[in-house]
Amino acid sequence: MAGAMDRRLAELIAEYEVPGAALAYFHGGETHEFAAGTLNTATGVESTTDALFQIGSVTKVWTATLLMREIERGRLTLDTPVAEVLPGFQVADPEVTGTVTIRHLLTHTSGIDGDLFLDTGRGDDCVAKYVEACAGLAQNHPLGATHSYCNSGFVIAGRVAETLGGKRWDDLVREQIAGPLGLTHTWTLPEDVLRFRAAMGHVNGAPAPQWGLMRGMGPAGLISARAADVVAFARAHLEGGLLDDPRVMWDPQVDVPNPDGLGRHWGLGWIVDEWDGRRVISHAGNTIGQHAIVWAVPETGTVVCAAANGGYANAFTRALGAELFAELDGLTVPAPPVPPETPPQVDAARFTGVYERAGARITVSIKDGEPWLRHETTGVLAALQPEPQESALVAVDGSTFVCKLGGAPDWTSAVFYELPDGSPYVHMGARATPRIS
Predict the structure, then answer these.
(1) Distances (CA, A) of 29 to 26, 183, 251, 269
(2) How far apart are CA 307 and CA 35, in angstroms?
(3) Are strands 400-403 and 412-418 parallel, antiparallel or unpaired?
(4) DSSP letters along 227-279, please?
(5) What kind and span of H or E run contains 362?
(6) 397: buried, middle or exposed (CB in 10 Å: 19+, 13-18, 0-12)?
(7) Is residue 207 domain-shared with residue 323, that is, in the same domain?
(8) Cα–Cα dist 185/171, whole Å
(9) Are both 189 and 50 inside the same structural domain?
């Protein structure tokens, strides 16, 4: 299969306009590695299997693992309030300040506005400073009321790990995970990454204006690694080596309102889904022009990691994963959502309005008699996507619509729903966004 996969990887990066990519998978007792394309179109450096890509939010599973190790040691429980571990911890809502728990952080149910991207410097206190800055963070939704992806929550989780471990999050990753697993190509700081061949992200076809995010975001998404190292990490969650019982992290903890995004459930760090009756755990990550994803099938032991540095990277890894799992395990990866041949008649006017959270403003309107969505990136990341993205919304059912944003080849799903108190929300891009007007 090696020769065929080399050719197919090259074909797929061309089809999805990806500059460079890396793939590793474990199957049948062996790890296989592949690479194609270039790491940086400005330099022409080729992508190789030992190159480091930013794995983005896949990092969150590593941070969750650090906390689960503390739980197994008896120093913490899932229901320990964060404030018990972090004296002085505070968010805008006083009740949430005192009651938000480790479980809320790891399952993205805290309701804390999650996309605070804040530069708190390069010092070793950057994570602590970030958590201090969370004192002004409002609630995106009431505590535990729904699921909404929360970067801020995982930086807070990283600070919990630092406090219990008495060391920098970066050191904890090295000493408790990368070191024991023998991961030589897994690093968190750019001064370490630059010792290796490393990918540069690309935005709109050109090298990104900056290599990575601010250091304080580390526990939410700053690991750089070669694909084979990520596979080895995921294997430890199937076979043991990091936790006494890693299966606890796979147990579904919360249903995701929009299951067509990444998966139907969230566990503890892991996304949990089911393909052809088999459980699949996964996590994806996006940084500035880079994307990575890892999937693992506990029943078969197969683990796949793919990384890319631009283009339509999400669609690329989805297509690659679908082909691989069909070949390796005979599994059908759920297809991305598409409009039905005959869309149902839905009164979309009841969903119109402005939906807003930190980092995004979504406006739903009726345009020429059809529902229309406008997505604006706000905050510090707005410079990377200064122009709003707009698309028609096509109904799939009474509350689910699909749209195409930014010229992407795949459709994106948006689910309109209400919380138990009747508050209207849209769940899109793994995030719950409240209607504010």
Answers:
(1) 7, 18, 25, 26
(2) 9
(3) antiparallel
(4) HHHHHHHHHHHHH-SS-S-GGGGGS--EE-S-TTSS-SEE-SSSEEEEETTEE
(5) strand 360-367
(6) exposed
(7) yes
(8) 15
(9) yes
pLDDT tens readout for residues 325-378:
999 999 999 988 899 999 999 999 999 999 999 889 999 999 999 999 999 998
Question: Is there a contact between 90 and 81 (Cβ–Cβ < 8 Å)?
Answer: no
Tens of pLDDT, residue by residue over 218-257, are 999 999 999 999 999 999 999 999 999 999 999 999 999 9
Contacts of 206 (CB under 8 A, 6+ apart): 41, 42
Query: What backbone phi and psi angles, to 5 degrees, belong to 253?
Result: -105, -30
Active site residue 413: no
Of 57, 148, 224, 282, which residue is the catalytic one?
57
pLDDT digits (tens, 9 = 90+) for 96-113: 999 999 999 999 999 999
Q: Mean pLDDT across the stretch 68-97?
A: 97
Residue carrying the six token digits 């990519």:
21
190 and 324 both lie in a single domain: yes
And the tokens for 319?
């297509």
CATH number at residue 362: 2.40.128.50
- Rounded Cα distance, 152 and 64, in Å: 14
